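Chapter review: from sequence to fold.
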Amino acid sequence: MADGFEKFIKFGDEKEVQQILGNRPERTYNPNEDFLPDDNLETPDIRPVRSESGKPTVVVIDDDYQTLDIMKIYLARDYECAVFSDPKEAIFYMNTHLPDIIFMDSYMTVMSAKKLISIIRLYKEMQKVPIYFMVYEEERGVFEHKKDTNVEGLITRPIARGELQKILDKEKLREYLTKD
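The token string follows.
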């Protein structure tokens, strides 16, 4: 039992410990299957909203800090840019902020991209938000071959400003900037 009750077991009654803890099995965290232990994410009760700044919101999720820095530099002037190295932090952010586009790493250590996309798509407001995988050139063929229907497209690493701008223009995020 690794629940912090070691001292209690040594000095207390083990039957009492079992009554408190119950006969529950040891839990293990699997990032491909679990978001958080005992999560119930069938219908989120939080409604994300658009940014008050009037700028389109771009969310970038990657465990590579260099990519996060580059994306923030490219996007900071014209977009509200939120960068996250941990997918769970991104989910907490998206509970209250509705992104206009999401760029995410295709391979993350904390949570699989497939699981993260399934969580994002639970929100009615985010079902149509375009999601792009950031992939290396050598991975591009694999992802194009088995393209996920929940992913709009791919952007090649290292991220080039021109390729990023083509995607943003394709998604018509520039319309926000010309409304003023």
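Two observations follow directly from the output. The longest helix spans residues 65-75. Residues 1-12, 27-32, 34-41, 176-180 have pLDDT under 50 and may be disordered.
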